[in-house]
Amino acid sequence: MIVFAAAVIIMTLFAGVFAPNDPYKTSATVIRTAPCADYPFGTDNLGRCVFSRVLYGGRTTIAATFFLVFVSFAIGTVIGMVCGYYGGIADRIFMRIADITLGFPQMVVAIAVAGILGAGMKGAMIALGITMWISFARLARSHTYSIKNEAYVKTVLFTGKSDFYIIMVHIFPNLMGPVLTNALTQIGTTMIGLSGLSFLGLGIIPPTAEWGSMISEARAYIQIAPWSVFYPAAATIITIIIFNYLGDVVMDYREAG
Amino acid sequence: MEHLLEGKKINKTFVTKGKETTALSDVSFYLDEGEILGIVGESGSGKSTLLNVVSGLIKADSGELFYGEENYIGKGPAHTGKFLRMIFQDAKSSFDPRMTMEKSLLESRRGKQDRGELSELIKAVGLEEKLLSRKVSDMSGGQCQRMSIARALYSEVGILLCDEITSAVDVSSQKQVVELLKKLNESRKLSCIFVSHDIALVSMLCGRIMIMKDGRCVEEGETAAVISDPKNEYTKLLIESAKKQSF
């Protein structure tokens, strides 16, 4: 599974090497051409190579997803560790904010926020990030709370080490496993979210290649050029399956070990 | 005479969901240098709470705690760690699962860390030096308990607070741990509070004994005197049941 995930990342990261055509070059002579040797996934309504756009679009989607998951992971984990370690009023405030935010479906919040912020990848990422940190914060908080009550942390308290030392040396490494597994499982959800916002016109602005916006653009002529929808949709689904499965594999590995 | 460690009229009540539970009620004790004080009582008698209060892990509601002349009541383990260390019941959980024994032991000292001294200490507690490179998952309960004693010794404190440290190990390891504490007490003048529910074990190790029930000290005195002539009904019951178990 790691091999598949690595293959997806490498293919999209080096899209310039693997793409047979310019993803943004339009051509009136090859509009809606079916898959052939020159255009393995066919062309779209403007004569652009779908295969090249899928590769370049993957780069946009995957890079944005990884960035968003990483930022949410970092912010959520820090908030969770501080809340779990110190407790008190800050913990209660953050957790109530989390409870209230969780009361709304993530996509509904994201659509509302993205609608306010306007279309664009930045707005879409903020819209999704508003709710994404919560799962990391809650997970990190519960693990921090249980780890800080472990005898090995109590033992370190006698050495006079600072709270920062205890959090960084004893708590953070011991909660990395479950939080990292959560990060892997969040990749799929985030990819759906970003593509979904782009599909609704609230994410990436065309002509930038992105899977969600490609599907959105091509659905208008799905009956005459189904490949224009099929390949970006297949790429989205396969990538989500790969990263979800990778999360499961890591989780199984952790539980077994 | 000034005691090494002394507690006066310590009180502690826990409040859970509006319900109050008195864990310690006017408990007083003392520990002299080079002495092993045994604290015996059933589960919920307050003996572990007393150790947690003495160590600073839990704050007492009222009372006084003295280390020499210093009243340290209300101070946390970062302060008490300068003169005492706690050894926990489950030795395995007292080591970070991601750290080697060596790192855990070196971390326990506040001052300069000396790897050479560590090797000597490991031998002093009857363990092999190669165990230092292992993680807790590769150690037995008995080995971990001796390693936690070595860690406390390496931290260069004079007082050990042992909270049911023989409960989670097998009988032969129990004996080894008790003999080790005896040896260290004689060779290093180590002072120790040894908490256990096993009065027979405590009588083997401790010069003085304190019996606790329902958060109170019901009897206290020289171990031999308390065992041979118990004054309190609960102490008599404990001794009787220990005698029955030995058969």
Explain what this protein looks like in three dimensions.
The complex is a heterodimer of chains A (257) and B (247). Chain A has a single domain, classed as MetI-like fold (Orthogonal Bundle), CATH 1.10.3720.10. In chain A, α1 (2-13) crosses α3. With 257 residues, chain A is mainly alpha-helical. Chain A is elongated and about 75 Å long. Chain A has helices spanning 2-13, 15-18, 50-86, 88-102, 106-117, 121-148, 151-157, 163-199, 211-218, 227-256. Chain B is an alpha/beta fold and 247 residues long. Chain B has two domains: 5-83 and 159-245, P-loop containing nucleotide triphosphate hydrolases (Rossmann fold); 95-156. Helix content of chain B is 36%, strand content 27%. Chain B contains nine helices and ten strands. Chain B has helices at residues 47-55, 77-80, 101-107, 115-124, 141-154, 171-188, 199-205, 223-228, 233-245, and strands at 5-16, 19-31, 36-40, 62-67, 70-71, 84-87, 159-163, 191-196, 208-213, 216-222. In chain B, the strands form two sheets. Chain B has a six-stranded mixed β-sheet, with helices on both faces. Chain B has a four-stranded antiparallel β-sheet with strand order 2-1-4-5, covered by helices on one side. In chain B, β4 and β5 (70-71) form a beta hairpin. The longest helix of chain B has 18 residues, at 171-188. The termini of chain B are far apart. The model of chain B has no long low-confidence stretch (mean pLDDT 90). The chains are: A mainly alpha (257), B alpha/beta (247). At the A-B interface, α7 and α8 of A face α2 and β6 of B.
Under CATH, the homologous superfamily of the largest domain in chain B reads P-loop containing nucleotide triphosphate hydrolases
CATH architectural category of chain A: Orthogonal Bundle
Tally the helices of chain A: what do you get? Answer: 10
The CATH superfamily of chain A is known as MetI-like
Q: How many DSSP H or I helices of chain B?
A: 9
Largest sheet of chain B: 6 strands, mixed
